[in-house]
Design a protein that fits this description.
This protein has helices at about 1-15, 40-50, 80-120, 125-135, 145-160, 165-175, 185-190, 220-235, 240-250, 255-260, 275-285, 285-290; strands at about 25-30, 30-35, 60-65, 65-70, 195, 215, 295. It is mainly alpha-helical.
């Protein structure tokens, strides 16, 4: 009965949208779906195929591995704010989970390097190069040499390379992009208003045009979220969040966005950023994202 009511509600919303014609492009790879040029209605049809009408109360907290490249062209025309916000979460949830999978893969690489170093007392040239590559990516610098350098880089990278709760990735995107309604999100695929300085590249702001910045343009929503996650794990302004994350994971096996939102007080110029993050995570019950995982092996019926 509840699912029937949800489907009726969604159909009512979709019928209110102006008719737009786009050629949806769905590509399968490794049991995952990659979607381009979808309208809201086409996206809902695809989600319904995999019983993804809600972002919580999913069986086994398994989110279908459906990755949306950009916001639907008619996304900003959705009349219901509640529906638009919940669709925003559904679109971004699989991306956030995928990005965290990749972060954990890099962390596992780092932990293997640590185990090899502890057992052999040294790293091979190839292993040293892997360590240096991770250090460069995560902006981890030290002037130390030889064994002290290896030990120092491993210890510091263990603080940096770790999960970024999906609830924080999505709540921050909601705040910075006004739930996907902002011009920057629509025209630059930028969920976090990332800036580039003193260049002609990027999307020119409508205000403060003489301040020397533009908004970075991303090829996809995933690129934008990856960039934010990398900043979260490499920019020293998030150091308090790294410390909080370590302490939380020592006490429990899972990291929830609500439990570490307070540590992000100084990470944004927006007033009460941490409080709004926490409110969004609680109001929309984003716990299911932080304990969720991707459901792969998807097959789309063309």
């Amino acid at each position: 009965m509840i699912m029937k009511m949800i489907k009726i509600f969604l159909l009512t919303i979709l019928l209110q949208l102006p008719h737009l014609s786009y050629a949806i492009n769905i590509r399968e790879s490794g049991g995952m779906l990659y979607v381009e040029d979808a309208t809201v209605a086409e996206l809902e049809n695809l989600f319904a195929e995999f019983e993804y009408q809600r972002f919580h109360l999913l069986e086994d907290n398994a989110f279908p591995a459906i990755f949306i490249k950009t916001l639907p062209k008619d996304f900003q025309n959705i009349p219901s704010k509640k529906y638009r916000n919940e669709l925003f979460i559904r679109m971004l949830a699989p991306l956030a989970l995928k990005i965290n999978e990749e972060i954990l893969n890099e962390r596992n690489t780092l932990l293997r390097l640590e185990r090899n170093y502890d057992s052999a007392g040294t790293l091979t040239p190839k292993e040293k190069q892997k360590l240096e590559t991770l250090a460069a990516k995560y902006d981890c610098f030290t002037r130390k040499k030889d064994d002290e350098r290896i030990t120092g880089l491993i210890n510091e990278l263990k603080r940096r390379i770790n999960v970024v709760p999906p609830s924080i990735l999505i709540a921050a995107a909601a705040i910075e992009s006004d739930w996907g309604e902002s011009r920057v999100a629509a025209e630059a695929n930028s969920l976090y208003k990332e800036k580039v300085w003193y260049t002609d590249e990027g999307l020119e702001p409508l205000e403060n045009k003489n301040d020397g910045y533009r908004f970075k343009i991303f090829d996809s929503l995933r690129e934008s979220m990856e960039s934010y996650a990398l900043s979260f794990n490499s920019d020293i302004k998030y150091e308090s969040a790294w410390t909080a994350r370590e302490e939380i994971l020592l006490r429990r096996n899972i990291l929830l966005g609500e439990t570490m939102a307070y540590a992000l007080t100084l990470s944004s110029n927006l007033p009460n950023f941490a409080g709004i993050l926490n409110y969004i995570a609680a109001f929309y019950d984003l716990l299911s994202l932080d304990i969720g995982h991707l459901k792969k092996g998807l097959k789309h019926e063309s």
